[in-house]
Design a protein that fits this description.
Order of helices and strands: HHH
Strand content: under 5%
Number of helices: 3
Distance between the termini: 29 Å
Number of strands: 0
Mean pLDDT: 91
Radius of gyration: 15 Å
Number of domains: 1
Low-confidence stretches: none
């Protein structure tokens, strides 16, 4: 039981580190250069150019329906 909790904590820390590295890449490379990669991030960059909200807001808004669809 204790080993499962430890493994869960390690998994959460790894996912948090991966998300931080990904967000740094978006902030320092993709956003300033107006690069539109594929997927939700690319669509978010394009929408941010047209409507002016932050890229992170669009990533969140576009991922919510995908998570709901994936859950069911």
């Amino acid at each position: 039981m204790k080993k499962n909790v430890r493994r869960w904590i390690v998994d959460i820390l790894i996912m948090t580190a991966a998300a931080a590295i990904y967000s740094l890449g978006v902030h320092f490379f993709i956003s300033p250069n107006n690069i539109a990669p594929g997927g939700v991030t690319g669509i978010s960059v394009i929408l941010a150019q047209f409507f002016g909200w932050g890229i992170g807001t669009y990533i969140l808004l576009l991922n919510i329906p995908l998570i709901i669809i994936g859950f069911f």
